[in-house]
Design a protein that fits this description.
The complex is a heterodimer of chains A (214) and B (261).
Chain A lengths: L1 H30 L16 E10 L14 E6 L3 E8 L4 E17 L7 E18 L7 E20 L7 E3 L2 E12 L4 E9 L5 E10 L1
Chain B lengths: L1 H16 L20 E6 L5 H17 L4 E6 L13 H7 L7 E4 L2 E4 L3 H13 L6 E10 L2 E10 L3 E13 L2 E6 L4 E7 L2 E5 L7 E7 L4 E9 L10 E10 L6 E9 L1
Parallel strand pairs in B: 1-2
Antiparallel strand pairs in B: 1-3, 3-4, 5-6, 6-12, 7-10, 7-11, 7-13, 8-9, 13-14
Classes of the chains: A mainly beta (214), B alpha+beta (261).
């Protein structure tokens, strides 16, 4: 089901981009502002962009285990948040900084003994550098890209409760991830983006807004 | 923009759908307890006067005072509640050294006389000795016709050596029946945890493993025929007990854990 959701998001992104692109092209043709021979691009050298996003977790290290076996399971899951800034080094390469974090609390209440409560606090924080390759596809509104990130990353699982059901975990300090996505510009300065990223500890799909200048 | 809105709605619906996975309470186990529950038995009868005066109130008090720390069987011979003693009764009475009614045992402690002090002491001793639970068993059950089907999941929280048996019992609660005492009759006494048979008709169940390592999970499916003397199927529940067995005598040497649902 999650895969279905992810595919739908990506389809939504590209389909919407195509629609928006077509609309804007029509407007431009009507206004006759487009100069003959000049190619429109959604990403270019010297561009500065800032993005803020929320995420959909694909999994966590602790989400695939069978906690429901042990009782009623409650996930107090914070929304993953993500900020990044990037600079266009060339017309097809960008580099920048990112910060992302995620927290959740999982509580398992024994259905045969309500006072037997176990669970864990799980947190993920990462700050670091990212670089991306931007593919110019000739559309002024769509900027597909792919890249990698490296940063200081802390993943921590702290159990609580009366029994040692959960194994404590602390990982870091260096984390890597690869990602791919697309920026979709509504105006030359404002747009949205969707990005799929994979790291060993927290693969996720994120979507958010972007602001770009120059 | 309308298409964008529609597609966004579809996407949101797809993600919302991911959360609607409702477990089937009849087959999917969600009751593996990491807590220890001692296993208590009481031998009693509705016609037995000393049972009504001593055993019956002590057993009911124990069920109330230790309800999250014990599983229990109230084992009756032929009386107003049980038409014919169940096949496992002899094994229980032999092991727990039941020389007459009432009589009681907790875990593998035998030959007790039921009283508040007896049950409190035995249960506290058993739970204190098992603060680090080595295994848990979860239960899911469903009734079809006159058959109770029980799905179990046994999880080991530590390495355990020896022959491990899992016994699955059927019990009935809320049976309203007069109880004789030494001085009078308790009218419409409520009898709980009345033993109604076991999977395989045995007292100590069947072997599920001979040693297990931490993290081992074992599934089981058991069926128990619901006997004709059951008053109300809606009041049936299941007790499951993990015994460490003596391979030579075929009798239990310890109760690893137990559970009821």
């Amino acid at each position: 089901m999650r895969i279905k959701g992810i595919l739908l998001i990506l389809l939504c992104c590209f389909f919407t981009a195509g629609e928006l692109s077509a609309d804007v092209e029509k407007k431009k043709r009507r206004k006759k502002k487009k100069k003959k021979g000049q190619q429109e691009t959604a990403f270019h050298q010297g561009q500065i962009g800032f993005q803020a996003a929320g995420g959909f977790l694909l999994k966590t290290d602790y989400s695939s285990t069978d906690y429901p076996l042990f009782g009623t399971t409650e996930y107090d899951r914070g929304f993953p948040i993500y900020f990044r800034g990037e600079y266009g080094i060339t017309d097809f390469l960008s580099a920048g900084l990112y910060f992302g974090m995620f927290k959740e609390k999982v509580t398992i209440t024994d259905v045969t003994n309500p006072s037997n409560i176990n669970g864990f606090d799980h947190s993920f924080k990462s700050i670091g550098l990212r670089a991306a390759y931007h593919q110019n596809i000739g559309l002024a509104l769509l900027d597909p890209y792919a890249g990698f990130a490296v940063g200081i990353t802390t993943v921590k699982v702290t159990p609580f409760g009366t029994e040692n059901l959960i194994t404590p975990m602390e990982k870091g300090p260096l984390g890597f991830s690869i990602y791919a996505g697309a920026n979709v510009c509504f105006t030359p300065n404002i747009g949205v983006f969707v990005e799929g990223g994979y790291s060993r500890w927290l693969p996720m799909i994120s979507a958010g807004v972007q602001f770009k200048f120059l | 923009m309308k298409k964008l809105l529609v597609l966004s709605m579809i996407t949101l619906f797809a993600f919302t759908g991911c959360k609607k996975e409702t477990p089937d309470p009849g087959t999917e186990v969600s009751s593996v307890s990491t807590d220890y529950k001692a296993f208590a038995v009481e031998f009693t009868a509705t016609w037995c006067p000393y049972c009504g005066t001593y055993g019956f109130p002590a057993f009911e008090n124990m069920l109330e005072n230790h309800k999250y720390k014990i599983t229990a069987l109230s084992i009756h011979p032929d009386d107003d509640i049980v038409d014919d003693a169940y096949p496992a009764q002899d094994e229980f009475e032999d092991f727990y050294d039941c020389g007459g009614y009432p009589s009681a045992g907790v875990n593998v402690s035998v030959g007790g006389y039921p009283s508040d002090n007896y049950f409190n002491g035995q249960i506290n001793t058993a739970t204190n000795a098992n603060t680090a639970t080595k295994a848990g068993v979860g239960i899911a059950s469903s009734v079809s016709g006159n058959t109770m089907t029980v799905n179990t999941k046994t999880v080991f929280f530590a390495d355990v050596a020896g022959k491990i048996n899992l016994a699955v019992y059927l019990v009935e609660d809320n049976i309203i029946n007069d109880q004789n005492t030494t001085s009078t009759t308790i009218i419409d006494a409520e009898h709980d945890n009345v033993f109604r048979g076991s999977a395989g008709n045995t007292a100590w169940g069947s072997t599920i493993t001979t040693g297990a390592t931490k993290g081992t999970k074992l599934d089981g499916i058991y069926t128990i025929a619901i006997p004709a003397d059951v008053r109300n199927k809606a009041n049936l529940h299941v007790v499951a007990v993990l015994f460490v067995m003596n391979p030579t005598t075929g009798k239990p040497t310890a109760v690893l854990n137990s559970n009821a649902l």
